[in-house]
Specification:
The chain has 17 helices and 38 strands. The chain is about 25% helix and about 35% strand. α14 crosses α15. Strands 4-3-2-1-6-7-8-9-5 form a nine-stranded antiparallel β-sheet. Strands 13-12-11-10-15-16-17-18-14 form a nine-stranded antiparallel β-sheet. The relative contact order is 0.05.
Length: about 650
């Protein structure tokens, strides 16, 4: 009696396991008796790694297989499949809805057969599978009523009536099913670019390799040099963005030039790489850009590609090279030495952060002047941004250096900081006056740079570096009197003073004409911080010599009586400047005997002095007066009369 419950439990377990096994087998065989078509094939669609579409016309048959995470078209050619197109097919199958369903046995009892529905020899056969398991769907005729077709289910037991639109979505053109992208490695993964380019002579191949480093890209062949990270990234983006123009059926590798490619482009990624072979130009391609025949390594499919992104790589060793060759920290520089032969210009940073300029050499006395900090800042920035316009030599010999002019450089620049000294040499060969080459202490390469712009950046005239602020009054200083006189005639053009009752210049100039008041205020501002446009001489002379035969005399003297505050008593001092006549709209020469210098005046002081010139001709338009009619001129005789008189 005790064994009876145990026997019953064992029997029930056996029955349960049998049911599970039966249901599992029914599931794996995709039994169409359970639910509609979508339910019958949904598992197969989800798990599939192969889609076969067989048509009665062999050339239109398709086979798509999953390889890793990607879909590949393996028939009629081997190429990457359009992922969106494949997903569309799978989505249509996964959610297909039948309009009607009937069993094959029912039509046979009514005297019909599969042939009556076009299913004995189906027009299309769709196979969805994974490994050895597969689902086969046969597609037959179109229904007489409605836009539907007959479809034979996976176990050949049921016929489904489904929308023709579903079937049409499966029969997309081969061009829509193929992906047009060439490289499959994503841009962010690419860590190396390799090029092998056949030279024009055909005797050898140029091999170029670039590798990604922490700071950008580096040429590893044919030389070791920095590459421009922006240009390399753009080149790689253009390569990965290039699309197939058209695929070639049964292409001859010899005729297309792919038996011996003219270029090989290899992209390296994370433990994988792709190589593209590029052959001859496709002369049949319509358009101005041109196209090449190409194929991927280990893939027989031939196609055409746009020429532009690949033509840009033919000079990659120069086109992608970093052209900024100067490297230093401008904020750490405390001295700049600029030399030309025996002449030398030194710019030194003082303890308080100010700069001074010192000129020496060729018998010149050492005479320091305050340097312009804005100009020094701009100079360092411009030096840091020097760019090569070409590459003259990558491994120069002594002979090369001499031929390029480095035995007698045009400029030698030393940038001194606490940690390093950067040396820059600029040279020009005797055979070419329009070329300028550069080399640095940190590189063996010789760069060609813009001659005119670079030499203008580095003048050997110490006056060019001098601080444009010639004189500055203390904040507490008080200008008591200003006057402008004509030195040649002794005429006083104007004189204005502050009195005991008038303590401000606004009150003192209250009765002056508007243009004169504006000019005097401009002069007052200039006297407080007297700046110059540029320096001409580091000495003061009785006139300014333009050249050996021409000189400009001083015409005007601008002076000011300034009350300077002292510890016990205030001190009265005089500031005085002389000026020539106005030489042009923006040029007027000035000088200061106290500062021992001659300079070009700034536009504000030029315009202010011009206001008080007595011989200034003011056009009637400026005063609102009537404009007189111009004097008539004699009429010229007609050309015919001149010709007749000369003939006589």
């Amino acid at each position: 009696m005790r064994l009876q419950p145990t026997s019953i439990l064992i029997a029930l377990n056996i029955l349960a396991f049998g049911l599970i096994l039966l249901l599992d087998n029914r599931k794996e065989s995709y039994d169409s008796k359970i639910g509609g078509l979508a339910e019958c094939i949904s598992t197969a669609v989800i798990e599939t790694d192969r889609i076969e579409l067989w048509e009665q016309i062999p050339d239109k048959s398709r086979i798509i297989e999953r390889q890793g995470s990607k879909w590949m078209l393996t028939k009629p050619l081997q190429w990457k499949a359009n992922t969106f197109a494949v997903n569309r097919i799978l989505n249509q199958l996964q959610f297909v809805q039948e309009e009607a369903t009937f069993f094959v046995s029912e039509i046979e009892r009514s005297g019909q057969s599969l042939a009556d529905f076009g299913l004995a020899t189906p027009k299309i056969k769709l196979i969805i599978g994974r490994g050895e398991k597969q689902v086969v769907l046969s597609i037959g005729n179109t229904t007489e009523i409605g836009e539907n077709v007959y479809l034979l289910g996976p176990d050949n037991a049921k016929i489904y009536v489904v929308s023709r639109k579903v079937i049409d979505s499966l029969l997309m053109e081969l061009s829509d099913l193929r992906s047009r992208s060439i490289f499959g490695i994503p841009v962010f993964e690419i860590d190396a670019l390799k090029l092998q380019i056949k030279t024009l002579s055909g005797d050898s191949d140029l091999k170029v390799r670039l590798g990604r480093i922490s700071s950008g890209w580096l040429f590893e062949a044919p030389l070791n040099a920095q590459a421009d990270p922006v240009l390399v990234d753009n080149a790689i983006n253009n390569l990965t963005a290039a699309k197939v123009i058209r695929f070639q059926q049964n292409a001859d590798l010899i005729l297309t030039g792919l038996q011996e490619p003219v270029m090989e482009v290899t992209l390296h990624g994370n433990k994988r790489q792709q190589t593209l072979f590029i052959g001859k130009k496709d002369t049949s391609t319509v358009g101005t850009e041109g196209a090449y025949f190409a194929k991927l390594k280990d893939n027989p499919t031939v196609f055409t590609i746009p020429a532009e992104p690949f033509d840009a790589l033919r000079e990659a060793q120069a086109a992608l090279r970093e052209r900024n060759f100067m490297s230093f920290d401008p904020s750490s520089i405390n001295a700049i030495q600029i030399g030309q032969g025996a002449r030398e210009m030194r710019l030194q940073k003082l303890e308080k952060g100010e700069w001074q300029v010192i000129r020496s050499g060729e018998g010149a006395s050492i005479q320091p002047h305050r340097a312009d900090p804005a100009l020094i800042k701009s100079l360092l920035e411009d030096l840091l941004e020097l760019r090569a316009v070409g590459f003259a030599a990558d491994a120069p010999t002594t002979t090369d250096l001499n031929q390029l002019g480095f035995s007698d450089p045009q400029r030698t620049i030393k940038l001194v900081s606490p940690n390093e000294t950067v040396l820059l040499e600029l040279a020009s060969p005797e055979s070419s006056s329009n070329k300028l080459y550069a080399r640095t202490s940190g590189s063996i390469y010789i760069y060609e740079i813009d001659r005119r712009a670079t030499l203008e950046l580095l003048p050997m005239d110490a006056l060019m570096y001098r601080n444009r602020l010639l004189d500055s009054l203390p904040q507490a200083a008080r200008i008591q009197t200003i006057r402008l006189e004509n030195i040649q005639t002794g005429e006083l053009l104007f004189e204005k003073s502050l009195s005991a009752e008038t303590t401000s210049w606004e009150s003192a100039l209250d009765s002056a004409a508007d243009n004169e008041r504006a000019a005097i205020f401009a002069i007052l501002a200039k006297l407080r911080d007297f700046t110059v446009k540029k320096y001409l001489l580091n000495e003061f002379t009785s006139d300014y010599s333009i050249d050996s035969q021409n000189s400009v005399p001083w015409i005007y003297r601008l002076s000011a009586d300034v009350l300077l505050p002292g510890d016990l008593i205030n001190q009265l001092d005089t500031r005085s400047y002389v000026f020539s006549k106005r030489l042009s709209g923006t040029v007027q020469i000035g000088g200061s005997e106290d500062q021992a210098t001659i300079f070009e005046a700034t536009p504000s002081i030029i315009d202010a002095i011009y206001t008080f010139e007595k011989n200034t001709l003011i056009p009637p338009e400026a005063t609102g007066a009537d404009v007189p009619d111009p004097e008539p001129i004699d009429t010229l005789p007609a050309p015919e009369s001149i010709l007749e008189s000369s003939t006589l």
